[in-house]
Design a protein that fits this description.
Strand content: 15-25%
CATH superfamily of the largest domain: Winged helix-like DNA-binding domain superfamily/Winged helix DNA-binding domain
Largest sheet: 4 strands, mixed
Number of helices: 15
Number of domains: 3
Strand order of the largest sheet: 1-3-7-6
Structural class: alpha+beta
Protein name: Initiator Replication protein
CATH architecture of the largest domain: Orthogonal Bundle
Distance between the termini: 58 Å
Order of helices and strands: EEHHHEHEEEEHEHHEHHEEHHHHHH
Length: about 350
């Protein structure tokens, strides 16, 4: 399908769909658009709502190139063979402004049209330069009552749907929290390591365009309100502490949210690969026959969940006894893990009916 406007080629159209509970924000998009030059962009809250809805609508086409190599080729064939290729999309106006304020809606779309408007070049698989012009969105218009339609270039589309690395964020974050800096902090929080990070006050001031004079004010006036809001959402929140001008942020997941996301995370081949490397190195398994363990963990989701639960119980037992888990090594580690795995299995519905049909990992 070809558009007469500015020689834009529209390859696909997306309609508004039911909201996602969580959205996947590509780290590349976050770094290039939301945190340009490692600083939070001062994006208005209504513009952030547009971005969240765009990602929600695109969620069924998002993919991980490492796991879905063919999808990357198909994307290249559809969107990166010629210049100025776009998709079209429409979003309900009430999702951007509850009161359907024309002024708020227009300002939000204008911001995303003008911000970072430029020519962009990317290379396709064949090494050819593909050029597109525009901001994140182009040509917003009211084509249908109650909706705004617009275009997204192949350059930004790729950053939104190709998930080399990504993090989950709650869709309703932009509706429950109205301060754009607080939303951007929550997105940044989803990207930091699980064990937290420590930054200087000056770094936080620069990153979020703040001007706090001391760490106490920063923690009380900026971090505390954010944490209170995130705690209400019962998803990803954080603890904080400071010493002089060094401020530590330690993220934590609400238990229910952690369980919801575990299934998706545990299916990620990168997670499986890292986990296997972790077990090998931490418990000296390099010279142990891991055929059964590797097969069960890598290929059978149910057993993978059970092994993770067994490992949690193994760690807990060692803590109760005041011992370090790494004192149990090699085959002895696998034997202990097998014991807990049998325990976990026999607590399941299947295990109650067939108590001796437990998975064997040794």
């Amino acid at each position: 399908m070809f558009s007469d406007q500015n020689r834009k080629i529209v390859k696909r159209s997306y309609d508004d769909i039911e909201n996602a509970k969580y959205i996947k924000i590509s780290n590349q998009f976050a770094d290039d658009f939301l945190f340009q030059d490692n600083k939070a962009t001062d994006i208005p809250i209504n513009a952030l709502r547009i971005i969240f809805n765009i990602i929600s609508i695109l969620r069924n086409d998002q993919f991980m190139p490492e796991k879905q190599v063919r999808q990357l080729t198909l994307f290249d064939e559809e969107f990166e063979t010629e210049n100025n290729v776009f998709i079209s999309m429409k979003i309900r106006n009430k999702k951007i402004s509850e009161k359907r304020s024309s002024k708020q809606i227009v300002e939000a779309y204008e911001y995303l049209t003008k911000f970072r408007m430029s020519w962009y070049t990317s290379k396709n698989i064949a090494g050819k330069d593909i050029k597109t012009f525009g901001g994140l969105i182009s040509l917003p218009s009211y084509e249908e009552r109650g909706y705004t339609s617009f275009l997204i270039s192949s350059f930004w589309l790729k950053k939104l749907i190709v998930l080399t690395e990504y993090n989950h964020v709650m869709y309703k974050l932009v509706y429950e929290i109205r301060n754009n800096k607080h939303v951007l902090f929550a997105i940044w929080l989803s990207k930091i390591p699980e064990n937290g990070t420590t930054l200087k006050l000056s770094t936080f001031n620069q990153k979020f365009n703040l001007n706090y004079k001391n760490s106490n004010d920063f923690c009380i006036k900026f971090l505390k309100p954010i944490r209170l809001n995130l705690d209400k959402l019962k998803y990803l929140s954080f603890n904080y502490k400071y010493e002089n001008d060094a401020i530590s942020i330690i993220p934590y997941l609400n238990k229910n949210s952690e369980e919801e996301l575990l299934t998706e995370k545990i299916n990620d081949p990168r997670f499986i690969k890292r986990r296997m490397r972790y077990f090998r190195q931490r418990y000296y398994l390099e010279n142990i026959d891991l055929t059964r363990f590797l097969y069960s963990y890598s290929n059978i989701l149910k057993i993978r969940h059970q092994i993770e639960e067994a490992y949690k119980r193994f760690i807990k037992e060692n803590r109760i006894r005041g011992k370090t888990s790494t004192n149990v090594r090699g085959i002895y580690f696998l034997q202990k893990l097998q014991e807990f795995l049998i325990e976990v299995y026999r607590e399941s519905e299947t295990g109650k009916r067939f108590p001796d049909a437990y998975p064997i990992i040794i």
